[in-house]
Amino acid sequence: MTGKAQTANGADPMIEVVGLKKSFGALHVLKDINLSVPRGHVVAMIGPSGSGKSTLLRSLNLLSLPDAGCITIGGHRMDFSMGRVSMRDRDLAAFRAGTGMVFQNFNLFPHMSVIDNVMIGPVSVLKQDKATARAQATELLAKVGLAARADARPEQLSGGQKQRVAIARALAMKPEVMLFDEATSALDPALVGEVLAVIRQLAEQGMTMILVTHEMAFARDVADTVIFMQDGFVVETGDARQVINEPREAATRDFLSHFHGGLS
Amino acid sequence: MDYQWDFSGLWQYRGLFLQGLAYTIGFTILTIVSGIVVGTVFALARLSGWKIVTIPIMVVVELFRCTPVLVQLVWCYYALPMLIGIEIAPATAAFITLTMYGAAFYAEIVRGGIVSIDAGQWDAGRAIGMRRGQLMAKIILPQALRRMVPPLVNQSVLQLKNTSLLSVLAVPDLLYQGQLVTSAIYRPLETYTLIAFIYLAVLFPTTRLAHWLEGRRT
Ligand SMILES: Nc1ncnc2c1ncn2[C@@H]1O[C@H](COP(=O)(O)OP(=O)(O)OP(=O)(O)O)[C@@H](O)[C@H]1O
Ligand SMILES: [Mg+2]
Q1: What is the domain partition of chain B in residue ranges?
Q2: Atom of ligand 1 nearest to the CA of A47
Q3: How far is A242 from chain B (nearest CA, A)?
Q4: Residue A53 Cα to ligand 1 middle (Å)
Q5: Helices in A106-260 by DSSP H: which ranges?
Q6: Is the pTM of this model over 0.90?
């Protein structure tokens, strides 16, 4: 089963985005994004290339600083309505620490072993002692099926293994929210399944997640909600099955028509 | 050419040559360290993006990169004291000049090494909540350093060669001692040949090391 069980309790949303805007120079990439994700919900974000999916995800984790709007995650609020002049590195870092992020290109630290990649967050950010961090990292590596590769170097791993290490590294910070930006797009088709299985497991355990994905069947089966983005706007939001199987908007229908191969 | 080579007269001055070599190597090591430290500060300051620091640093870097070291040395020893009204000892002038000259080049090497690291590494570090300084120290610099080693060694070889210019300020480096010996025994051919060989003996292994490090990188 999926993460759909624990959801829809009507409590405070885990993620709340109000009036989010972001431009790169003259290019308006995000135009007034509003979003609310209940605790334990899984949201799949779909949309054409350049529609702003990555930028939205990066804004949620403050890797891109919004120009306007307000983001609340797990009760922590970042208000950009006065611009971003007063944002201090310390506050940004503290906010980011509560949200895990997984990238298309893994971005493992190549000069460290697998287990050090997983330990560095807890040790250097949470100031955990090394023994505790190591025990926790070992557990997380076992959870993603890589207990045996703890001492390997990232370069010795397959793409799917690298991505699972990246997931373990993010989980080591005990985040309340996980963001995945096309976590399987750089993988050999044969390796996609092992990463999706880990994500599915997280969904079942009630992790609040936003996934940018092109795996429509996965989005339909694992996500509670699907968001369709285009040109910096959320065009359609709704129940995952409804949006993917019977989209209301013509733009969504048009976009999905390119994916019928992936919808078994 | 039927010149009669005779190196025998040089042996009695071995102490002087050794002392000169010690000065040369000492100055080299000192100014490599100080040059890398100042250069790294320049590089980090430039990367901060604050115009108030980046512009003056760029001016200093270009000044030292685009004038000959000999001119810098002479300027620092003869002209600078007139500006600031304080006498500067030759060794001090030499140290300041070689440090700044080295720093100008080291700064570009360090900056280049840092910006060559994939932006994804910054993203990944930030995403787990690392602060800027932590990220630089634990993620970016360790990776950048590996890429910087070959150019740093090359620049340091030049740094050693440049110490030969100290002799114009009467700092008793290897070349200066050679000049002393020459004026004592009137054997410039032998003396300067020996001096050249001593430089070669120190630098050849160093450049080999640099090549080896460069080859190992890929
Ligand atoms: N750092 C940046 N500087 C300038 N423009 C950027 C930057 N990042 C993204 N953009 C632009 O913003 C727009 C949206 O990009 P974004 O990466 O968010 O799209 P996306 O929906 O994730 O697309 P894809 O499916 O190709 O990943 C694009 O036109 C892109 O070129
Ligand atoms: Mg993207």
Answers
A1: 12-217
A2: 21
A3: 32
A4: 8
A5: 114-124, 130-143, 159-171, 189-204, 216-222, 240-245, 250-256
A6: no
